[in-house]
Amino acid sequence: MDRIPLVPPTIQPINELVHRPLWSVMIPAYNCASFLEETLLSVLAQDLGEDQMQIEVVDDASTDADVEALVATLGKGRVSYYRQPHNVGSLRNFETCLNRSRGHLVHLLHGDDRVRPGFYTKMGGLFTAFPTIGAAACRYAYIDAWGNDRQCSDPERPDDGLLDNWLIRIAQQDRLQYVSMVVKRSVYEHLGAFYGVTYGEDWEMWVRIARCYSFAYTPEVLAEYRGRPQSISDQKMATGHALRDLRSVIAVIQNYLPDDDKQAVLRHSKSVYVRYGMYGAFNAWKDSGNTNYILGTIREAYRLYSGPSFYRILTKVLFKFILYNCALHKPKRENLNTEPFYLSDTKTTE
Q: Least CB-packed of 20, 263, 287, 347 within 10 Å?
């Protein structure tokens, strides 16, 4: 079985005669045991009960801890556990999550992300208020590896409701994260699962859904997406492989759009992701000192878009690179003051 399917994997329907919960909270996990406790506790704190909510960890053969024991300790029998017989990769693990889900609404919650109080009540309410939608999303916060807030996503609308002109807006650039998305299982049954790439596969899925279904949205910040250097996303961004995947996704998305909108969306997407990739590589270089991160990304950025935006952004990034290098190698002046120095002695005008 290929780790990266070339077409959307099939999600088998469930016999409607079988009792089904409203929710399936499916938690794909791989070597994230140090964060999994926070993830599980954030769900269990708003557990709606077995009759209304399936909670299951789907472990892609982790090697960092005894995940089954961790789930048993925290879940106390409330959280199911399934372990892949061998490591199958993120896309196949998502496929397993979807096929093992039994609820009408599916939340794919990565094992290092978190939900805030009220997530399931609020998101379920959107499906009640707008019964014809295929998916719903909320605003989300970015958190670092230690769980500290860094920033929040921009709101897509000022209040609860349906997202207008959503196919074009989501096709221009990814505006969502897995943790912020809830999708009807019937939609996955209709359209299939994630495929093709391991960076941007979610973006392609949200556009695929938007082509066929409407989305509801709440501007409440109810989910937390964790950025960390060990994640697949951050590793692929650092090496430039993310831009290679995004080039493929952008080409696929073109097939979902009306002919009159294709060129404008294409220019917008390429410009956005050249900037995103180049600055991401610069930050990865700052954190690691590995110059190959910038060089590899420059190559992939040029392949993605060799228009004016590429050269403007390249100039800015190289200028930042030179300035930062100069600051690193600037000789330190000898401190002739023999008295001890304390942070409390300094003042700032900010």
A: 347
CA 276/CA 198 separation, integer angstroms: 17
Residue (of 308, 226, 310) closest to 29 by Cα position: 226
Q: How far apart are CA 273 and CA 303, in angstroms?
A: 12
CATH says 23-226 is which class?
Answer: alpha beta
What is the band of 279 on the pLDDT scale with cuts at 50, 70, 90? confident
For CA atoms 191, 195, 198, 203, the dihedral sign is: negative
CA distances (Å), origin 124, targets 74, 205, 208, 294: 25, 21, 22, 43
Ramachandran bin of 240, using left for φ above 0, alpha for ψ from -120 to 50, beta for the remaining angles: left
Using CA atoms, how far apart are residues 13 and 186, in angstroms rounded to an integer?
7
Q: What is the pTM of this model?
A: 0.86
Closest CA to 270 of 233, 305, 226: 305
Name residue, tokens 């190289």: 318
pLDDT (tens digit per residue) in 146-172: 998 889 999 999 999 999 999 999 999
Q: For residue 13, how many C-alpha atoms fall within 13 Å in the half-sphere facing its CB? A: 8
Q: Specify whether the CB–CB gap between 298 and 244 falls below 8 A.
A: no
Closest CA to 183 of 155, 157, 156, 210: 210
C-alpha 176/C-alpha 190 separation (Å) is: 21
CA distance 260 to 246: 22
Look at the alpha carbons of 75, 77, 78, 81 in this order and tell me if their dihedral is positive or negative: positive
Would you list the domain boundaries of the chain?
23-226, 232-329
